[in-house]
Design goal:
Layout (H helix, E strand, L loop, with lengths): L15 E3 L5 E3 L2 E2 L3 H10 E4 L2 E5 L4 E6 L4 E9 L6 E6 L4 E3 L6 E5 L5 E8 L2 E5 L1 H10 L1 E2 L6 E5 L2 E4 L2
Parallel strand pairs: 1-6, 7-12
Antiparallel strand pairs: 1-2, 2-3, 4-5, 5-6, 7-8, 8-9, 10-11, 11-12, 13-14, 14-15
Length: about 160
């Protein structure tokens, strides 16, 4: 006979969630108001236990399927080793690709790889496919036999 877990051991689902497509929801209903989404994203923090919306009065845990942000825009200034690449998410978060905000590739569930960039406070954003393809279009090799990648702020970031 199965014994139910004591109430203290049962984790209630978070009221807020962000799915793998970057859609925010409250109690299962998508949040569509951009102003509200930008406000909430500004309150988002990450700690050892995961993600939370933090206000002066309370902290609300938020379930995040992958990462909380999606990079939808990019800007290139300069070229070659003198280039500077700036990313912007769909919610207005932005960062320059550099040592504090590196780009990395990680395995995805479908067997491929997904590109991520660090935004702020250890939180990451996944690059939208169009942004990654645009970066691939300007990629170059640092060494004759090395991987293709992009330069930003004097650093080389491999794309393969």
């Amino acid at each position: 006979m199965d014994v139910p877990a004591p109430p203290s051991a049962v984790r209630k689902p978070a009221e807020f969630a962000i799915d793998s497509q970057g859609v925010w929801s409250y109690r299962g209903s998508p949040i569509k108001r951009e102003g509200l989404l930008r406000l909430l994203s500004g309150m988002l923090r990450r700690d050892a236990r995961g993600y939370a919306l933090v206000t002066p009065e309370q902290t609300l845990r938020i379930d995040v399927a992958d990462v909380p942000f999606i990079v939808t825009e990019w800007e290139l200034q300069g070229e070659g080793e003198l280039a500077s690449i700036r990313f912007r998410t769909s919610l207005g978060e932005s960062s320059t690709l550099d040592a504090e905000h590196p780009l990395c590739l990680r395995p995805s569930r479908d067997g491929g790889t997904k590109p991520y960039v660090v935004l702020r406070d250890g939180m990451e954003a996944v690059l939208h496919r169009n942004v990654f393809y645009a970066l691939a279009g300007i990629a170059q090799q640092r060494d004759a036999d090395g991987p293709y990648g992009v330069y930003s702020e004097g650093l080389f970031f491999p794309l393969e």
